[in-house]
Amino acid sequence: MTTVLFASLILFFVINVPIAIAIGLASVAAILFSGAIPPIVIVQKMFTAADSFPLMAVPFFILAGSLMEFGGISRRLVEFANSIVGRFSGGLAFVAIIASMFFGAISGAAVATVAAIGTILIPAMVRRGYDKPFATAVQATAGTLGVMIPPSIPMIIYGVLTGVSIGALFMGGILPGILVGCSLMFVAWLISRKKGYHGDEKPTLGRIWQTFKQAILALMMPVIILGGIYGGVFTPTEAAVVAVVYGFIVGFFIYKELHLSQLKNILVTTVMGTSMIMFIIATSSVFSWILTAEQVPQAVAEVILSISKNPVVILTLINILLLFLGTFMETVAAIIILVPVLLPVITQIGVDPLHFGIVLVVNLAIGMVTPPLGVCLFIGCSIADIKLEDITRAVWPFILIMVVDVLLLTYLPWISTVLPKLTGLY
């Protein structure tokens, strides 16, 4: 049964079947081959996987991101970030990274972050003389901060699967997100100095104050969301609903850039994005259930632990596996399939599940900017109107520094766990 499962999955990948459908068809093939499991189990498992209160946060965070994009919130975040760091060499690249951190603190999704910030900053960088591949590479890699800086849709899914507190995961993602953001800015600064990408004139205090006043309501959004979660006022799912209501009120009634005529497109985008994620969750849950039933996690754990029981060696092997799989597997599917397999391994060697969750998410975020899947690369390329091969060389310095960050997070677990423990969330 396991052989049929993986053989059919590889076949579907080779013939370029969409990943959610490939996972679902491979699961169906394995169950039909066994002959001992009624096919109705497939539907039952898919429904059960999707019927989850914490997962209701997914569509609401996607909707909140869309409301930010159309309601003028993301533009004001960009203008405020530009007033602070736009004067440095590669200033607009800094703006792209910092604005993505702000936006990620609301949307929880990488693709939404690239689309919302990239449509503003990639053309702006090109107009200022930045070459398109560099501008696109900066924005694509900065977009991955959307799943590291809390809230984070992948962290929600990991928390649902493992029982680790989602609030603790969100708190644990703050320092890693800042670490990766600062690392990306360092690389952008080095390249900008080399290529002569100069910044704007030093802004006056009046200009900084003006942009801050315009962005204050946008900046308050993550404070309300995360403060409410950490303060115990509402759950992550309820926080997502609050984000939607707040984003609509600010965009429609205060900034007055959100119009009723835009709601149809916003809702359609939200439904499409949610449908894709939930379908992946549903089919991946069947795939994961088959693996568990066939005791694949236990077998994998035995194989890995037979190589070594040293946590450093095991985590290194897992990092290599995650970086490899992230290049061609969608993040949500990878989490649902890999967590049941890897969790027994990391628990046996004494690795904190919260720490592992952060390492897992950051690892798979790198896959979002690594060819051939590289979903953030595709979004960036479509905005810049360039081909994927044009950006490949420009993105590698950013990928390499993110790999260094993963190693730091792996072998210095306190970076991920210190804030949850200090705040009593974990």
The major β-sheet equals: none
Low-confidence stretches: none
- The H/E string reads HHHHHHHHHHHHHHHHHHHHH
Per DSSP, what share of the residues sits in E-state strands of 2 or more residues?
Answer: under 5%
Q: Tell the overall outline.
A: globular
Structural class: mainly alpha
- Helical content stands at over 70%
Structural Rg: 21 Å
How far apart the termini lie comes to 39 Å
Number of helices: 21
Provide the residue-averaged pLDDT: 89
Number of domains: 1
Number of strands: 0
3D architecture notes:
The chain is an all-alpha fold. It has one domain. The protein has helices at 2-14, 19-34, 40-50, 57-70, 73-85, 91-107, 110-127, 132-143, 153-162, 166-172, 174-195, 205-230, 236-254, 260-293, 296-307, 311-325, 331-348, 353-367, 375-384, 388-411, 414-422. Helix 12 (205-230) packs antiparallel against helix 13. The model has no long low-confidence stretch (mean pLDDT 89).
Outline of this structure?
By secondary structure, the chain is mainly α.
